[in-house]
Amino acid sequence: MELTDIQQRFVIHWGEMGSAWGVNRTVAQIHALLFIHGRPLHAEELAATLGVARSNVSNSLKELQNWGLVRVTHTLGDRRDYFETSGDVWELFRTIVRGRKEREFDPTTRLLAELAAREDFAQEPPEAQDRLRETLRLMQALGAWTEEMLRLSPHTLEKVLRLGASVQRFVRDKPD
Questions:
Q1: For residue 167, what pLDDT is reported?
Q2: Is residue 176 part of a domain?
Q3: Inside any domain, residue 174
Q4: Which residues contact 32 (CB under 8 A, 6 or more apart)?
Q5: Per-residue model confidence (pLDDT) at position 176
Q6: Quick one: DSSP state of residue 68?
Q7: pLDDT (0 to 100) of residue 174
Q8: Do residues 62 and 109 both lie within one domain?
Q9: Contact at 8 Å (CB) between 18 and 12?
Q10: Among 109, 97, 111, which Cα is nearest to 146's?
Q11: By its UniProt entry, which InterPro entries does this protein fall under (predicted)?
């Protein structure tokens, strides 16, 4: 499959960004290719287009499926599995945020709560106790906020994002 220069640059850049986000480059490139191409592709097409080994594509597709970012589909008269991703950026955003929250954020929050609940927590230096409790409060507040944001419709979420820093003038503490 031939990619335009724009498509090629997008796929390459998404792969580079994937590495920065802690995701294998090929995984990110496959997702980018499925997203930009907009139609289901089979593993051989993905491997040939990206110039990577078929086994690498298979492993990458499994990872994308585990994240809920890619699903299998079929074409009439073709026994191969085809793979597609959502074309809705808001759906993809929600899937990624939920997955990262579950895999990275929530375990830290649970650990902090567990540590603060231990009987021997009181033996920790007061400064360490304060830091752990404050971190737990922050993590719990951010977790609750994230869940609320993920419940919003894309239209409402976009409005909230556009408000951005202008919200600060309404909630900023008044100088004493």
A1: 76
A2: no
A3: no
A4: 10, 11, 14, 15
A5: 52
A6: T
A7: 61
A8: no
A9: no
A10: 97
A11: ArsR-like_HTH, HTH-GbsR_regulator, HTH_MarR-typ, MJ1563, WH-like_DNA-bd_sf, WH_DNA-bd_sf
Query: Closest Cα partner for 82 from 70, 95, 69?
Result: 70
Asked whether the beta carbons of 69 and 96 are under 8 A apart, the reply is yes
Give yes or no for a contact between 97 and 67, defined as CB atoms under 8 angstroms apart. Answer: no
Residues in the chain: 176
Instruction: Indicate the average pLDDT of the chain.
Output: 93
Do 110 and 55 reside in the same domain of the chain? no
Last residue of a domain, one of 84, 116, 138: 84
- Provide the residue range defining the domain that includes 28: 5-84
| Residue matched to tokens 């699903």 | 71
Rounded distance, CA 115 to CA 124, Å? 11
Residue 175: phi and psi, rounded to 5, are: -65, 145
Question: What local confidence, expressed as pLDDT, does residue 106 receive?
Answer: 97
Strand ranges (E), the chain = 41-42, 71-75, 78-84
